[in-house]
Amino acid sequence: MTVNDAVAARVSRLLTEKKMSQYRLEQKSGMQHGSMQCIMNGRNKTVTLSTVIMLAKGFDMSLTEFLNDAVFESEDLEIE
Questions:
Q1: For residue 10, which of 79, 80, 51 has the smallest C-alpha distance?
Q2: Which 3 state secondary structure label does DSSP give 32?
Q3: Fewest CB atoms within 10 Å of the CB: 43, 63, 64, 79?
């Protein structure tokens, strides 16, 4: 699993947990729709820290809270 896959999985779970649409997340985080689609569809191979910070803010959480998930602790996580 790549870092991008892990971020996409975390976003998907949080959208479900918070009963939030992807559109609402894009609005709250300031992310472009195309950028969000690239992340969610696995076309983006290099998610940046600034992108993750924007996503965390969109969910009204700190970066630490966003990254505090088992998906980021997997030994199979590919870090390039």
A1: 51
A2: coil
A3: 79
